[in-house]
Structures are given as structure tokens and as C-alpha cells.
Amino acid sequence: MVKKIVKSYDYTLIVAVLLLCTFGLVMVYSSSMVLAASSPKFGENPTFFFDRQKMALFVGVLGFLFTLILPYKIYANKRMLLLIVLGSVFMLLLVFVVGHTANNAQSWIMVGARGIQPSEFTKLSVIIYLAAVYSKKQAYINQFDKAVMPPIIFTFFICLAVAIQPDFGTAFIIGLIALSVIVCSGMGIKSIGKLLLLVLITVAVLSPIVLIKADEIFSDERMSRFTGFADPFNNEAGDGYQLVNSYIALGAGGWKGLGLGQSIQKFNYLPEAHTDFIMAIIAEELGLFGVMFVLALLAYIVLRGFLIARKCTDPFGSLLAIGISSMIAIQTFINLGGLTGLIPITGVTLPFISYGGSSLLLLMLSMGILINVSMFTNYHSMYSNKEKKPQNQKVQQRFQKNYVSYR
Predict the structure, then answer these.
(1) CA–CA separation, 18 vs 10, rounded Å?
(2) Which of 21, 115, 208, 315 could be bridged to 399 by S-S, CB 3.0 to 4.6 A?
(3) Is-contact 348 331, C-beta < 8 A?
(4) 23 Cβ partners below 8 Å, 6+ apart?
(5) CA gap 219, 391 in Å, rounded
(6) Closest by CA position to 369, among listed 310, 308, 300, 303
(7) Distance between CA 52 and CA 142 in Å, rounded?
(8) What is the DSSP string of 162-191?
């Protein structure tokens, strides 16, 4: 049985994840070495960010192996699910008590010299919660008040708690991830229409509050992201500085790049080069080939995840795969959209590549779960008795019918 399980793992996904993490570690060192070496804040140590990212990757690999082996269905257990939800809520509330402020957001909890960002792990908690709840409501999924509304109310308050920190970018991402799981949960067109109407009503209700708190919400720093995005070259030394230097880095690399470690923009021209603008350094040093290497691996992970969701006959496993794949796709789009000027800069990291311990650990835990779902799906398709009907066959058939019809 152990041999069959080992054979059922999706090793192409494992390789893709490890390649991205290794490549990201190299690029974190390349993009951050000048900043770290020139700043007393980082001990003038060129490997400061590299060492921290390396430690985060080590912990992430341990977490990856743990969730890779642990059967994913355990997360749907009532006690485990309650522990995940309450733990997530507790950490978010703890931020308001002992939280550390960085980049004008009280989003961090300091553990010694290192910080943990609870809102990052909330993304996975929301995915698990929504997948577990909606998979158990398949028999009455189109009863809006009974099946659809309760999880949405919980998700709304989670997003609100993150937005109050304030971290509007992460709150927005959590909302989009939740929406992807909800829309793919198997509900009908009418329920989706009611959901969209509910969103519009919520926006209308919150508008007066936004207007009252306009000075706090639309601060000069936040508004500078929009003004810089709209016309960066109009104020190259001000609001458009970061985006203009991103354009310079993207254009300087050409097809082959200037060579690994040869970036000019990382010499304190491009702020946050090792975090949300790391793709600009990749383009400058490794050219279009380096960019396509990263995008190809990310695209493979996302598409493979959606394929796993389609093949999985278990509603919980399918929704887990949808949520995790959507999370990676959404973050990738927002990150690349920011550094290319398609959307305003949000500070969202590039999955597996950018510097950030909390983000990397979240992604590794998530990928372990996704690959575990894939393993069980492959195992049952290859070795299970096809003549034996599953206990929840009617629920699974209903979910598959709705999912194919409305996805």
C-alpha cells in the first residue's frame, strides 16, 4: 500500500515548487545584497535577507512535507476545523493588542527578531473553512439563506479585520480567493446572482463609512500609488519613482539579460527590489528567458491545481484545490500587474520568489495540501475498486454536475 501511495504523488508539482523556491532564494540574494551591505540597519551584511529567507524556506519545507503526508480530509474534521478557524481569528485579534507596525500597517506579531503576519495564514484558513462548509452543504447548496450566507458572513468579518489593520491589499485578495471558492461550490446561477446583489448592497452600505473616514483611508501615501500608476512619468522623482525604475529594469534586460548579479536598479534605485518588485530584477538580470521560466512554472502549478480540482470526486478536496490554485493565480496577477503598471502598486509578493517568510511558509503549507489532494485522487483512480460505489456517491455526483455546469 505504501508503494502505491508513493507512486500516486504528483512529482512534477513537487519539482516545480522546489525549482521556484530555489530560484527565488538565489534572486533574493542577488536583489538584496547591495541594500543589506550598505545599510547599518541590516548590519552591513550582504547575506542578511538571504539568510532569513533560507531559514524560512527550511521551515517551509518541513511544513510542506507535513501537509504533503497528512491526509487532507482531516482538515474537514469538526474539531480540526474549529481549531483552524478559532486560531486564525485569535491571531488576527492579537495583532490589535501586541501587533508591530510596518509600512503603516499593524499586521505583524514579533517573535524575537522575526515577524509573523497572521493575515497571510488567514488566506489558507478561509480556503479550508469554505471548502469544508460548502462540501457538506451540497444537498441543499442552492438554499441561499441556509447554505450560502453563513460562510459569507464569516468571510466578510475576516476581511474587515484585515482591512482595519489597515491592509486593504491582503483583505482584497482574501475576498477574491473566497469568491472563487464560493462561485465554484456548485451553487446555481440564481444563487450567484443573489451573491453579486449582496456584494453591491454591502458596498452601498459601507460607502458612508468610507466617506467619513476618507482622510484615514485615502491617505497621501495610499493615493500616491494611484497617481503614480496613472501617469508615472509625470512625476518621476515622486509618486512615479518606483514604477519608472521598474520599467527601466524590465526594459534593460532584453532577451538574455545583463547577467546574474549584474542589475543596476538594485543599487538603491528600485525600492523594495527583493520583495514585490523582484520580477523587475529577474527581467534585468536574466531577460525574457528568466521571466518566462518563472511564469511557466507558476502557470503550470495553477493549471495543474485546477486540473486536480476537476479530477477529484470529493467536493472538499476539489474546493481545496480550487482555492489554493486561485490564491497563487490572484497573487501572481496582482504582483505582475503592479510592477508593469496594469494596476496600482499593492505591495503583494510574487509567490515562491519574493522575500517574505510568512508568505513562503503559507505557500509551502498550501502546496503540500494540494499535492496531497492530488495523491489521493490519483490513488483512488488507479487502485480503488471501480465497482464499489462510494458512500456519498449522490452528493459527489450532484457536486460534479453543478461544478461542470456553472464553473
Answers:
(1) 13
(2) 315
(3) yes
(4) 293, 294, 353
(5) 55
(6) 308
(7) 47
(8) HHTTT-HHHHHHHHHHHHHHHHTTS--HHH
* Cα 378–Cα 379–Cα 380 angle in degrees, nearest 5: 95
- Give buried/exposed letters for 294-326 (b at 16+ CB in 10 A, else e): beebbeebbebbbebbebbbbbbbbbbbbbbbb
pLDDT at position 205 is 74
What is the identity of the amino acid at 337? G
For the segment 198-209, what is each residue's pLDDT rounded down to a tens digit?
878 877 776 776
CA–CA separation, 342 and 112 (whole Å): 38
CA atoms within 13 A on the CB side of 270: 26
- Which residues are registered as beta bridge partners of 114? 111
Helix count and strand count (H, E) for the chain: 15, 3
Q: Specify which residues 115 forms β-bridges with.
A: 110
Lowest-confidence pick of 29-38, 159-168, 350-359:
159-168
Which amino acid, residue 269? Y
Q: Give the whole-angstrom CA distance, residue 31 versus residue 20.
A: 16
How far is the C-alpha of 237 from the C-alpha of 254, rounded, in Å? Answer: 25
DSSP 139: G
